[in-house]
Amino acid sequence: MGSMDKYNQLYQSLFDQEDIFSNIEVIQTMAIDFFPNILHRCIHERYVTKKIEGQVNDLIDYYTTHSSETRFWKNPELFKCLVDFSLQKDTSSQKNLLNLIGMQLGIEHEPVATTKHLATRFFYYQKCYFFHENKFELNETNHFLVHKMDNTQILTVCLPLKNAFTGFISEDIYPTIFSTKGTVDEMKLLIENSLSILQKYSPGLYNDLFETISYVFLTPDFGDSIRFSYNLRTQYFGAIFINPFQTNEVAFAESLIHELIHQRIWMQWAYNMPDLHEYEQIRIESPVTNRLKSLPVMTQAYIIYNVLYDFNLFLVSENIVSGARKKKTDTAIQHLQKNIPFLYSRLTDAAIDAPELSNLIGRVHALTNTFCYEK
Length: 375
Known about the structure:
Layout: H1 5-15, H2 24-44, H3 50-66, H4 76-87, H5 91-105, H6 112-119, H7 123-128, E1 129-132, E2 135-138, E3 143-147, E4 154-158, H8 184-201, H9 203-212, E5 215-218, E6 229-231, E7 239-242, H10 249-272, E8 283-285, E9 292-294, H11 295-317, H12 323-350, H13 355-372
Parallel strand pairs: 4-5, 5-7
Antiparallel strand pairs: 1-2, 3-4, 6-7, 8-9
């Protein structure tokens, strides 16, 4: 077995075993089915009136016919519209959201004035897109594309924008007003170098990143040196947010790993653990970051910390880091090696009345002990 193969095995063993986590093809099927499932549920639970039920069914039929096209499901804005629709009881607001969903699918052609009015609630329409020939097109000054090594897929990387997510993302992690830092070329180099490291670490993970994530939003510098990335669960599936001003290419690569795993698990849990909200009130202090998070979040963190421990071992073993960066990586390895068992203990105690999570924690513990601590 080659030296790098052993690292690739941990990620693949976690995420290619159906009894632990679904593989990427299953996750994609879940993401594709999210659209009709949530709308069918709204009809079944009588969230929609007979007046608009026909419009909902028309959207489901159109989507089902075209769902193999990635633009129909690898679109975080579509997920946001769907989640907002499922929470909205007012018929007028529901109709507006259905129009937005139709616009996302390319089948609604409202007058420009109406479209712009509806669009002010949504980031893409407000800042990143412009209206041209009755459709929205991406504003090239606000983004750049990063291609997968084999040129089969792309990531759209959106630059920080003032007032971009006002009313959707809190000010403390996406400031409304900020000073411009860095250049586009610097951001491109940072991301390309990060992706190169990931491809060397785990080709499987690298592939899954492009399969799962469609948008990387670079945030303004919100000044948190511990947390510099996040995601919005299934409410904005396929998009992750990273502060590039608190990272180098290694830390950026770690953020990509971190948020990819979160996105995969949140989508699977949306199907496999529908009552997960019951455990959100159970809070655990992370021994790694010393921050309080919910039991489901810290269960995911336990998985992520193990993969990041493995990733840092790879960085040292393959001489990816040197000098001051190697010292920092060695410190990270020691910190994780010391605190991951503490987190496991806390999770085991906290999950005693959460059998699904307790079983998962035990399975991951057995697997990561084999891969991480016997190298």
